[in-house]
Protein backbone atom coordinates (compact mmCIF):
# COMPACT_ATOMS: atom_id res chain seq x y z
CA UNK A 1 0.00 0.00 0.00
CA UNK A 2 1.22 3.49 -0.83
CA UNK A 3 1.57 6.30 1.68
CA UNK A 4 -1.41 8.08 0.15
CA UNK A 5 -3.59 5.00 0.58
CA UNK A 6 -2.52 4.57 4.20
CA UNK A 7 -3.20 8.26 4.84
CA UNK A 8 -6.70 8.03 3.33
CA UNK A 9 -7.45 4.92 5.40
CA UNK A 10 -6.25 6.66 8.56
CA UNK A 11 -8.38 9.71 7.83
CA UNK A 12 -11.49 7.56 7.27
CA UNK A 13 -10.79 5.68 10.49
CA UNK A 14 -10.58 8.76 12.70
CA UNK A 15 -13.11 10.91 10.86
CA UNK A 16 -16.18 11.48 12.96
CA UNK A 17 -19.37 10.15 11.35
CA UNK A 18 -21.60 12.84 9.92
CA UNK A 19 -25.02 13.14 11.54
CA UNK A 20 -27.85 13.05 8.98
CA UNK A 21 -29.91 16.20 8.63
CA UNK A 22 -33.06 14.42 9.78
CA UNK A 23 -31.35 13.25 12.98
CA UNK A 24 -29.93 16.72 13.63
CA UNK A 25 -33.39 18.24 13.25
CA UNK A 26 -34.86 15.57 15.53
CA UNK A 27 -32.25 16.24 18.20
CA UNK A 28 -32.85 19.99 17.92
CA UNK A 29 -36.58 19.46 18.35
CA UNK A 30 -36.14 17.26 21.44
CA UNK A 31 -33.72 19.77 22.97
CA UNK A 32 -36.23 22.54 22.31
CA UNK A 33 -38.96 20.50 23.99
CA UNK A 34 -36.76 19.94 27.04
CA UNK A 35 -35.95 23.65 27.28
CA UNK A 36 -39.64 24.50 27.00
CA UNK A 37 -40.50 21.93 29.66
CA UNK A 38 -37.89 23.37 32.02
CA UNK A 39 -38.93 27.02 31.60
CA UNK A 40 -42.57 26.69 30.55
CA UNK A 41 -44.00 29.05 33.14
CA UNK A 42 -41.38 31.72 32.43
CA UNK A 43 -41.78 31.48 28.66
CA UNK A 44 -45.58 31.40 28.65
CA UNK A 45 -47.06 34.86 27.99
CA UNK A 46 -50.10 34.12 30.21
CA UNK A 47 -51.07 31.76 32.97
CA UNK A 48 -52.39 28.55 31.47
CA UNK A 49 -55.65 28.93 33.43
CA UNK A 50 -56.00 32.68 32.84
CA UNK A 51 -59.31 33.61 31.19
CA UNK A 52 -59.93 36.29 28.57
CA UNK A 53 -63.68 36.09 27.96
CA UNK A 54 -63.66 39.00 25.54
CA UNK A 55 -61.36 37.03 23.18
CA UNK A 56 -63.00 33.62 23.25
CA UNK A 57 -62.17 31.42 20.24
CA UNK A 58 -59.85 34.09 18.89
CA UNK A 59 -58.07 32.96 15.71
CA UNK A 60 -54.27 32.60 15.62
CA UNK A 61 -52.08 35.41 14.37
CA UNK A 62 -53.18 38.32 16.52
CA UNK A 63 -50.67 40.14 18.70
CA UNK A 64 -52.30 39.23 22.00
CA UNK A 65 -52.62 35.48 21.31
CA UNK A 66 -50.25 34.10 18.68
CA UNK A 67 -51.89 30.66 18.58
CA UNK A 68 -55.38 31.87 19.37
CA UNK A 69 -57.58 31.13 22.36
CA UNK A 70 -59.93 28.34 23.35
CA UNK A 71 -63.61 28.36 24.29
CA UNK A 72 -62.86 30.03 27.64
CA UNK A 73 -60.47 32.60 26.26
CA UNK A 74 -57.37 30.80 27.55
CA UNK A 75 -54.21 31.37 25.55
CA UNK A 76 -53.46 28.26 23.46
CA UNK A 77 -49.72 28.97 23.35
CA UNK A 78 -49.45 29.22 27.14
CA UNK A 79 -51.43 26.02 27.62
CA UNK A 80 -49.32 24.28 24.96
CA UNK A 81 -46.06 25.15 26.73
CA UNK A 82 -47.30 23.85 30.08
CA UNK A 83 -48.80 20.78 28.41
CA UNK A 84 -45.40 19.91 26.94
CA UNK A 85 -43.92 19.94 30.45
CA UNK A 86 -46.61 17.63 31.87
CA UNK A 87 -46.55 15.20 28.93
CA UNK A 88 -42.75 14.95 28.95
CA UNK A 89 -42.76 14.47 32.73
CA UNK A 90 -45.17 11.57 32.36
CA UNK A 91 -43.24 10.10 29.42
CA UNK A 92 -39.81 10.31 31.06
CA UNK A 93 -41.07 9.07 34.43
CA UNK A 94 -42.98 6.17 32.94
CA UNK A 95 -40.12 5.18 30.62
CA UNK A 96 -37.66 5.21 33.54
CA UNK A 97 -39.94 3.01 35.66
CA UNK A 98 -40.48 0.63 32.76
CA UNK A 99 -36.74 0.36 32.06
CA UNK A 100 -35.80 -0.21 35.72
CA UNK A 101 -38.52 -2.80 36.36
CA UNK A 102 -37.93 -4.68 33.11
CA UNK A 103 -34.13 -4.71 33.36
CA UNK A 104 -34.24 -5.83 37.00
CA UNK A 105 -36.60 -8.70 36.24
CA UNK A 106 -34.49 -9.67 33.24
CA UNK A 107 -31.36 -9.83 35.37
CA UNK A 108 -33.18 -11.87 38.02
CA UNK A 109 -34.32 -14.34 35.37
CA UNK A 110 -30.78 -14.61 33.99
CA UNK A 111 -29.21 -15.12 37.43
CA UNK A 112 -31.79 -17.42 39.04
CA UNK A 113 -32.47 -19.96 36.38
CA UNK A 114 -35.29 -22.44 36.78
CA UNK A 115 -38.46 -21.53 38.66
CA UNK A 116 -37.77 -17.80 38.96
CA UNK A 117 -36.84 -17.56 35.30
CA UNK A 118 -40.02 -19.34 34.24
CA UNK A 119 -42.07 -17.09 36.52
CA UNK A 120 -40.56 -13.94 34.98
CA UNK A 121 -41.12 -15.27 31.47
CA UNK A 122 -44.72 -16.08 32.40
CA UNK A 123 -45.19 -12.49 33.61
CA UNK A 124 -43.74 -11.09 30.39
CA UNK A 125 -46.03 -13.28 28.28
CA UNK A 126 -49.02 -12.21 30.36
CA UNK A 127 -48.09 -8.53 30.03
CA UNK A 128 -47.57 -8.85 26.29
CA UNK A 129 -50.98 -10.48 25.83
CA UNK A 130 -52.84 -8.00 28.05
CA UNK A 131 -54.64 -5.10 26.26
CA UNK A 132 -52.89 -2.36 28.18
CA UNK A 133 -55.31 0.40 27.22
CA UNK A 134 -58.28 -1.55 28.58
CA UNK A 135 -56.39 -2.33 31.79
CA UNK A 136 -55.41 1.33 32.18
CA UNK A 137 -58.99 2.45 31.66
CA UNK A 138 -60.17 0.03 34.36
CA UNK A 139 -57.50 1.07 36.88
CA UNK A 140 -58.07 4.81 36.38
CA UNK A 141 -61.84 4.43 36.50
CA UNK A 142 -61.65 2.43 39.75
CA UNK A 143 -58.89 4.28 41.64
CA UNK A 144 -59.45 7.78 40.27
CA UNK A 145 -57.02 10.12 38.56
CA UNK A 146 -53.80 11.56 39.94
CA UNK A 147 -50.49 12.39 38.31
CA UNK A 148 -48.38 9.92 40.40
CA UNK A 149 -50.88 7.12 39.70
CA UNK A 150 -50.85 7.94 35.99
CA UNK A 151 -47.04 7.91 35.84
CA UNK A 152 -46.86 4.62 37.76
CA UNK A 153 -49.50 3.07 35.53
CA UNK A 154 -47.72 4.21 32.38
CA UNK A 155 -44.53 2.76 33.85
CA UNK A 156 -46.09 -0.69 33.62
CA UNK A 157 -46.22 -0.32 29.84
CA UNK A 158 -43.43 -1.91 27.82
CA UNK A 159 -41.37 -3.35 30.68
CA UNK A 160 -41.62 -6.85 29.21
CA UNK A 161 -39.43 -5.75 26.29
CA UNK A 162 -36.65 -4.69 28.63
CA UNK A 163 -37.04 -7.94 30.57
CA UNK A 164 -36.66 -10.12 27.49
CA UNK A 165 -33.71 -8.12 26.17
CA UNK A 166 -31.92 -7.92 29.52
CA UNK A 167 -32.41 -11.63 30.20
CA UNK A 168 -31.09 -12.74 26.82
CA UNK A 169 -28.08 -10.42 26.84
CA UNK A 170 -27.26 -11.19 30.48
CA UNK A 171 -27.27 -14.94 29.80
CA UNK A 172 -24.96 -14.34 26.85
CA UNK A 173 -22.68 -12.11 28.95
CA UNK A 174 -22.49 -14.69 31.74
CA UNK A 175 -21.20 -17.20 29.22
CA UNK A 176 -18.37 -14.87 28.21
CA UNK A 177 -14.99 -14.66 29.85
CA UNK A 178 -15.15 -11.23 31.50
CA UNK A 179 -18.19 -12.04 33.67
CA UNK A 180 -16.72 -15.38 34.74
CA UNK A 181 -13.38 -13.74 35.55
CA UNK A 182 -14.98 -11.08 37.73
CA UNK A 183 -17.06 -13.75 39.47
CA UNK A 184 -13.93 -15.77 40.27
CA UNK A 185 -12.36 -12.68 41.81
CA UNK A 186 -15.15 -12.69 44.39
CA UNK A 187 -17.41 -9.94 43.04
CA UNK A 188 -21.00 -10.03 44.23
CA UNK A 189 -23.80 -10.69 41.72
CA UNK A 190 -25.03 -7.11 42.13
CA UNK A 191 -21.62 -5.72 41.23
CA UNK A 192 -21.28 -8.09 38.28
CA UNK A 193 -24.62 -7.11 36.77
CA UNK A 194 -24.48 -3.37 37.50
CA UNK A 195 -20.80 -2.62 36.95
CA UNK A 196 -19.87 -5.07 34.21
CA UNK A 197 -22.87 -6.56 32.39
CA UNK A 198 -25.16 -3.51 32.33
CA UNK A 199 -22.62 -1.17 30.65
CA UNK A 200 -22.04 -3.75 27.93
CA UNK A 201 -25.74 -4.13 27.09
CA UNK A 202 -26.74 -0.50 27.71
CA UNK A 203 -26.68 0.40 24.01
CA UNK A 204 -29.41 -2.12 23.21
CA UNK A 205 -31.51 -0.96 26.16
CA UNK A 206 -31.14 2.67 25.06
CA UNK A 207 -32.47 1.82 21.62
CA UNK A 208 -35.41 0.02 23.24
CA UNK A 209 -36.05 3.15 25.32
CA UNK A 210 -36.40 5.26 22.18
CA UNK A 211 -39.10 2.84 21.04
CA UNK A 212 -41.06 2.84 24.30
CA UNK A 213 -40.86 6.61 24.89
CA UNK A 214 -43.07 7.71 21.95
CA UNK A 215 -45.53 4.92 22.69
CA UNK A 216 -45.92 6.22 26.25
CA UNK A 217 -46.59 9.72 24.92
CA UNK A 218 -49.28 8.37 22.58
CA UNK A 219 -50.78 6.22 25.34
CA UNK A 220 -51.00 9.16 27.74
CA UNK A 221 -52.48 11.29 24.99
CA UNK A 222 -55.08 8.64 24.27
CA UNK A 223 -56.09 8.34 27.93
CA UNK A 224 -56.28 12.12 28.32
CA UNK A 225 -58.27 12.31 25.09
CA UNK A 226 -60.79 9.89 26.63
CA UNK A 227 -60.95 11.98 29.81
CA UNK A 228 -59.15 9.47 32.05
CA UNK A 229 -55.67 10.96 31.97
CA UNK A 230 -54.56 14.35 33.23
CA UNK A 231 -57.48 16.15 34.85
CA UNK A 232 -58.31 19.89 34.93
CA UNK A 233 -57.07 22.37 35.90
CA UNK A 234 -53.85 20.55 34.95
CA UNK A 235 -53.28 20.23 31.24
CA UNK A 236 -51.38 17.93 28.88
CA UNK A 237 -51.09 17.51 25.13
CA UNK A 238 -53.70 14.76 25.05
CA UNK A 239 -55.93 16.77 27.35
CA UNK A 240 -55.81 19.73 24.93
CA UNK A 241 -56.62 17.48 21.98
CA UNK A 242 -59.56 16.04 23.89
CA UNK A 243 -61.03 19.45 24.62
CA UNK A 244 -60.33 20.72 21.12
CA UNK A 245 -62.28 17.96 19.38
CA UNK A 246 -65.58 19.69 20.22
CA UNK A 247 -64.43 22.79 18.33
CA UNK A 248 -62.73 21.11 15.39
CA UNK A 249 -65.01 22.85 12.87
CA UNK A 250 -65.17 26.29 14.53
CA UNK A 251 -61.71 26.55 16.09
CA UNK A 252 -59.42 23.81 14.74
CA UNK A 253 -56.29 25.53 16.13
CA UNK A 254 -57.22 24.38 19.65
CA UNK A 255 -56.61 20.75 18.66
CA UNK A 256 -54.09 21.18 15.84
CA UNK A 257 -51.39 22.84 17.98
CA UNK A 258 -51.05 19.99 20.57
CA UNK A 259 -51.72 17.28 17.96
CA UNK A 260 -48.89 18.58 15.77
CA UNK A 261 -46.59 18.70 18.79
CA UNK A 262 -47.39 15.06 19.62
CA UNK A 263 -46.77 13.90 16.05
CA UNK A 264 -43.48 15.78 15.62
CA UNK A 265 -42.16 14.74 19.06
CA UNK A 266 -42.88 11.05 18.57
CA UNK A 267 -41.44 11.23 15.05
CA UNK A 268 -38.26 12.91 16.35
CA UNK A 269 -37.73 10.25 19.01
CA UNK A 270 -38.31 7.49 16.46
CA UNK A 271 -35.79 9.02 14.04
CA UNK A 272 -33.20 9.25 16.81
CA UNK A 273 -33.93 5.65 17.82
CA UNK A 274 -33.44 4.36 14.28
CA UNK A 275 -30.15 6.23 13.97
CA UNK A 276 -28.91 4.95 17.33
CA UNK A 277 -29.84 1.41 16.36
CA UNK A 278 -27.74 1.68 13.20
CA UNK A 279 -24.83 3.33 15.03
CA UNK A 280 -24.77 0.95 18.01
CA UNK A 281 -25.36 -2.31 16.14
CA UNK A 282 -21.91 -3.89 15.73
CA UNK A 283 -23.09 -5.98 12.76
CA UNK A 284 -23.70 -2.78 10.77
CA UNK A 285 -20.29 -1.23 11.42
UniProtKB/TrEMBL annotation:
Pfam families registered for this protein in UniProt: BPD_transp_1 (PF00528)
GO annotation, cellular component aspect: plasma membrane
Domain called ABC transmembrane type-1: residue spans: 84-273
Keywords: Cell membrane, Membrane, Transmembrane, Transmembrane helix, Transport
Transmembrane feature ranges: 18-40, 88-112, 132-157, 197-218, 253-276
InterPro entries listed in its UniProt record: BP-dependent_transpt_permease (IPR050366), MetI-like (IPR000515), MetI-like_sf (IPR035906)
Membrane disposition: Multi-pass membrane protein
Subcellular location(s) of the protein: Cell membrane
Chief subcellular location: membrane
GO BP annotations listed: transmembrane transport
Family membership: Belongs to the binding-protein-dependent transport system permease family.
Protein name: Oligopeptide ABC transporter permease protein
Originating organism: Bradyrhizobium cosmicum
Amino acid sequence: MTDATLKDASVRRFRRPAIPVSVALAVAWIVAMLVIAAFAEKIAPYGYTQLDLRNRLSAPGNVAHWLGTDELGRDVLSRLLVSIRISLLIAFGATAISAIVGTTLGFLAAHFRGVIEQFVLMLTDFQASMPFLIMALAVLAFFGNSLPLLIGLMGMFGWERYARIARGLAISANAQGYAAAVRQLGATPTRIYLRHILPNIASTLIVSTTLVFPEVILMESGLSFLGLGVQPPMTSLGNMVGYGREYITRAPWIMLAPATTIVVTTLAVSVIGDWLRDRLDPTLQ
